[in-house]
Amino acid sequence: MSKIGSKDVQQFINDNLSEEFFKNNIPSQMSAFRILDITVSVNGMDEELYRQLPDAKKKQMEEENRVVENEEDINKLYNMLRKSLIPRTVAIIDRKLMEHKETVMPKLLEDLKRSANDLFIESAARILIKAEDNYSKEIANILPHIKYPYTQAVACYVLGKIGSEEHIELLYNYFNKFKRDYRNEEYFEGPLLGLHEMKRRFEF
Fold this sequence. Notes:
13 helices, about 70% helix, mainly alpha, globular, about 0% strand
């Protein structure tokens, strides 16, 4: 039974997002968006996987976490999002930043509009998905103003995770836009994964 409440949205789904669409458009298992999705879903790192890491890598990770735990300067913590970090470390930063969400989140959304730093973009995505407050309206509002297509595609993926039914058509439009405008790139995988997530969440 579909959880879609709007007749207009349901009609749009009936017209454009049939079972055949989803059968013909299956997300790649190897795309950057799928990998991001996995790191969001596991919420850190599996202990068995952690045990298999080389001692030097474990030491590096433990040191990163220690530095983050001891850092109280919000600007320094925020700037760490631009570095290569494991999801567990990002989660610690996220927890600390959310204590100042009134100032941090507007800055994060504003920075997403012009950032080309993949590490920052992916960390921001994790934070937006895990946030206690829902920022889907804000993401939808900045989406046309985001400068780089990869950042737009990640934002579409985030909308798939936290957006409302009114965002389904937006994701569909970006899926087609990326398919049309970037034929040699995989940007379409972001909104496609988002659409599959919407299908799962709203059961249409």
